[in-house]
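Box 3.1 A note on notation
Throughout this textbook, protein chains are presented in two layers. The first layer is the amino acid sequence; the second is a token string describing backbone geometry. Keep the layers aligned when reading.
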Amino acid sequence: MRIVLLDDYQDAVRSLAAFGKLDGHTVHVYNDTAADEDALVERLHEAEAVVLVRQRTRLSAALLARLPKLKLVAQTGAAGSHIDIAACTARGILVTQTRGGSHSTAELTWFLILAGLRGLAPDVERMRQGHWQTTFGRGLHGRTLGIWGYGKIGRLVAGYGRAFGMQVQVFGREKSIAEASADGYATVDRATLMASSDVVSLHVRLIPETRGLVTAEDLARMKPDALWVNSSRAELVQPGALLHALRAGRPGYAAVDVYDHEPVLGASDPLLGMANVLCTPHLGYVERDNYEQYFGDAFDNILAYAAGAATRVVNTELLQS
């Protein structure tokens, strides 16, 4: 098969053991992001299968209509709103997805919390410049950790908070509230979570219904010395709301791994210019073991399709027809 893998920023996939599964197939790997539809068509016009690295590229109906040879979309992780599933189905294009690990993102989230409260990043940089102990951070023990969204990652982060002696409280959907309560955590309403937590960590899946879920009013309720942490998706927050809130002083700090427009090149995001914000380049799921699982599953899906027995299919109606 002719396979194209998009958006492998670090040229990491070819270093994986899983990449050997594609021996015998024609594979083209791109390490940058195509800027527009025409550029994507140029890259994909001969592709029979495309491998997507999470949500880095959007497959719209208009783009798919210009790719007559495409038969399979192999998504790493869960297929989301970045893929027009209905358009794929109408064109007979199978969409597959993979299992996804939660620990790598939860661990990165905990790093953001620790580094954000202790002022780790600026002190490391100032030490390189010849200074010594220039920040005055805060510890976690006894403070209140607010978890917004109690799915797989939120549950892990809540457990880390408990292990560090934090008071953990949870807000989310009715099902999340019930599960958190059963696990022994306090559950609170939205306003209380934002107003009483020293750290608020967001763990909500981005779907059309959750886009812009977090409002400027929510952020304005936070304490002036509180830390906002987002390792989920920037689009969960209303556009511009976090920047405005930080400038207004509530919350006082933020640690983020996700941005409205990715990749962020040339230090173009305004959050990077703020001294009270710790920024990392969407590293939550970018970890070797996680990549082996994601891409190993995606490549298995391609091989299964080539053998006539597609696996982990999203638009299963195509299998029935």
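The longest helix spans residues 288-306. Residues 137 and 213 are 30 Å apart (CA to CA).
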